[in-house]
Amino acid sequence: MIKQKSYKFRIYPNQEQQVYFAKAFGSVRFLYNKMLAERKELYEIYKEDKEQLKAHKPKTCTEYKKDNPWLYEIDSLALANAQINLQTAYNKFFRGKGKVGFPSFKSKHKDKDSYTTNNQGGNIRIENKHILLPKIKGIRIVQHREIPNTETIKTVTISRTPTNKYFVAILTEREEEKTQIIDIKSAIGLDFSMPHFFVDSQNNKGEYPKFYRQAQENLAREQRKLSHCKKGSNNYHKQKLVVALIHEKISNQRKDWLNKLSCQIAKDNDIVCLEDLNMKGMSQTLNFGKSVSDNGWGQFVNMLNYKAKSVIKVDKWYPSSKICNHCGRKNVNLMLNDRVWNCSECGAAIERDYNASQNILDEGMRLVRKNRKNKTVGTTGLAYLCLAQQGYRVGSHCL
Ligand SMILES: [Zn+2]
């Protein structure tokens, strides 16, 4: 089984390297927009006639390079990836049947400055605190983690933040043995919860730290100031940087907090059960808006994925909130703002999220038991479990 892992490190390019990166970011964006414009034109002409639309092949990267020779200066795989990204967005639009919009143009001001390139025959590597990339060598890198030599670098994404900091995100792959035997001594269920971040199956809450909420208030204040500045003025640009710096600080604080939280959970539990949520869909359908996509749940689940011994993902359609954990009655009329679960069957009154997290644990352990027979566990395919014979007790669950 192939396992992927990602790392992110800060890099410190010198003047010359910064110039190259600026060119690369610009070229990738240029190519993406050029190709998109061509696609859009064809689409407008032939949208009624799918066969015709298919028959018109878009121009290739090489053709674009011939027309714009300065593109030859740029890493060709970075350009090829821009084309692949556009193709993906375009396919999504077609398969989305009206739910997904036509891909939009990349803007210098709104979109992130970044490009992705691939490792070919070891042309991307880290040596003596410097990273070597295609077309550009020896950029100083600060590594807080070593990449084990059992892992191979697949792709690298270079990005620049609005506050002018540079990062590389490195994606690696390694071959993992199929059978991983773990003794289950403890398991936990986590329910994603709006006010508390999560509630676990022992009714512990993953409260956001206070400094984080304070920083949020600070951000709102500075954003208000920005909205009063005249667009394009000196003050506007100054204030924009202030806002970007706070954003960066908040995201670092959040990451730090999530890292500690996920480490603790992974250390204390052999199995972590959670819902396989689609956060993007959730913020749209439930109208939670920005707070859902920004709260870091996805980031948190990713961290658990590589830190915990085993993560069991419960189907997102499993009605964890609607089932009474005491008697199993299903309450289909439960509303989103019902915070307490009053069971009309057995009379239990428990907090909604606590009830849900217990159900998630039960459902996760059911999957473990079910798959014990065929020795596979987890909808994520992360680990094969082989449970000890004598039946470990997991909370109130006897395996
Ligand atoms: Zn009940």
Provide an overview of this structure.
The protein is 41% helix and 20% strand. With 399 residues, it is an alpha+beta fold. The strands form 4 sheets. It has a 7-stranded antiparallel beta sheet with strand order 2-6-7-1-5-4-3. Strand 3 (125-127) and strand 4 (130-133) form a beta hairpin. Helix 6 (234-268) packs parallel to helix 9 (297-307). Bound molecules: zinc ion. Zinc ion (ZN) is lined by residues 324, 326-327, 329, 343, 345-346, 348.
What's the helix and strand layout?
Layout (H helix, E strand, L loop, with lengths): L1 E11 L2 H32 L3 H6 L5 H7 L8 H20 L17 E6 L6 E3 L2 E4 L2 E7 L9 E9 L5 E10 L11 E7 L3 E4 L9 H19 L5 H35 L2 E5 L3 H7 L4 H5 L2 H11 L2 E5 L25 E3 L6 E3 H22 L19 E2 L2 E2 L1
Parallel strand pairs: 8-10, 10-11
Antiparallel strand pairs: 1-5, 1-7, 2-6, 3-4, 4-5, 6-7, 8-9, 12-13, 14-15
The protein binds zinc ion (ZN).
The site of zinc ion (ZN) has 8 residues, from loops.
